[in-house]
């Protein structure tokens, strides 16, 4: 049973990991509008978590920080509630951490239910591909 929490160590915060995610040749990408996921498997560090995430909402889409923060909260919450979907992808990758960057693509706000349904579909696709 995986706890439905999103702790600090489950977030990507080191610059080296972020650069490896976006510049590394082994990362994959897929989109289900309005979300895009860039993901890769990395050797597990001392944190020992199976999945780490990063959430990005561009200032180009939302000028006001209030709206950007709302979208980031919605994405994190939908991931938190549905992260057990990825537990099936991990048995083949012992000793590895799945790093995922969620990037917002739309110029308008969506309801939390719509974001959650798209997140579920995206996580299922990541699970199938890995």
How is this structure best described in words?
This protein has one domain: Ribosomal Protein S5, domain 2 (2-Layer Sandwich). The longest helix is centred in the middle third of the chain and has 18 residues, at 65-82. Helix content is 35%, strand content 22%. The protein has a four-stranded mixed beta sheet, sandwiched between helices. The protein has helices at 15-23, 65-82, 112-129; strands at residues 28-32, 35-43, 51-56, 96-104.
- Which fold name is given in CATH as the topology? Ribosomal Protein S5, domain 2
| Gross geometry | globular
Read across the widest sheet, the strand sequence of neighbours is 1-2-4-3
Classify the beta-strand content into a percent band: 15-25%
Cα Rg: 14 Å
Structural category: alpha+beta
- How many domains? The number is 1
Number of strands: 4
Described by strand count, sense and barrel closure, the largest sheet is: 4 strands, mixed
The helical percent reads 25-40%
In the CATH scheme, the class would be Alpha Beta
Instruction: Let me know the average pLDDT.
Output: 88
